[in-house]
Amino acid sequence: MSTKKYNPITPSLRYRISNSFAEITTNVPEKSLLAPNRRSGGRNQKGEMTMRYIGGGHKKQYRIIDFKRNKFDIPATVKSIEYDPNRSAFIALVVYKDGEKKYIISPEGLKVGQEIVSGQSVQPEVGNTLPLANMPLGSVIHNIELQPGKGASICRSAGTFAQLSGKDGKYVNVKLPSGEARQILGTCLATIGTVSNSDHSLTIRGKAGASRWKGRRPRTRPVVMNPVDHPMGGGEGRASGGHPRSRKGIPSKGYKTRTKNKASNKYIISRAKK
Length: 274
Description:
- By secondary structure, this protein is mostly beta strands.
- The chain has one domain: CATH 2.40.50.140.
- Helices cover 2% and strands 24% of the residues.
- It is built from one helix and 17 strands.
- A seven-stranded antiparallel beta sheet has the order 9-16-10-13-14-15-17, with no helix packed on it.
- The longest helix has 6 residues, at 208-213.
- The model has no long low-confidence stretch (mean pLDDT 95).
């Protein structure tokens, strides 16, 4: 995994750092695994703007990803590593022995031609999926389920991973990327390895137009608004705007928004580091 710098032949290229896409093996997606991805432009059914700063951007199709990995004990061969415009991680096209094709989140180090498999007692190797209870302690994992059979919901973005730190009855202790340690049912599935494209956070767009390509319009800073538009607006001259807060007045730093009596609180061993 590596990044790419540019010769500054234009002002925008001077600071731009992009992905080299060295791992990508094809730029033609699998047609049977594509779905429409329509944009709203931040408008509702009446055409009224209800979400600001959204609009434009390149057209793109959604890649249907298999987050469940529930084809047990059927080996699959990796056919290609591909770019997905809908997520930060790369995806891999795998073909099962029975001929079915599926996209999965590609882990770091997965190669074309490699065989992966899901199951109760498969080897804990990169790309393989198995229940948390059957993994050795210290395993580096991603694509973690929170409810058995629901599909992966944790550690899916580029470069993320969690670590299995202990076992306690029917639960296992997992340390998440945020620093939070929590208990998850041992019957939940997870995939061995770290999510690909770990250098995604090092990229720099270099110009405002690159954000427009992503469908993000320029954002107005709250401190330059009027008091009627934002709690941080108004004041004579360049006022600081007061304590950082949202448009609805909710503080943005240090304010806890998690429900105190949330059902899953009992599974959290230690909170995320601040």
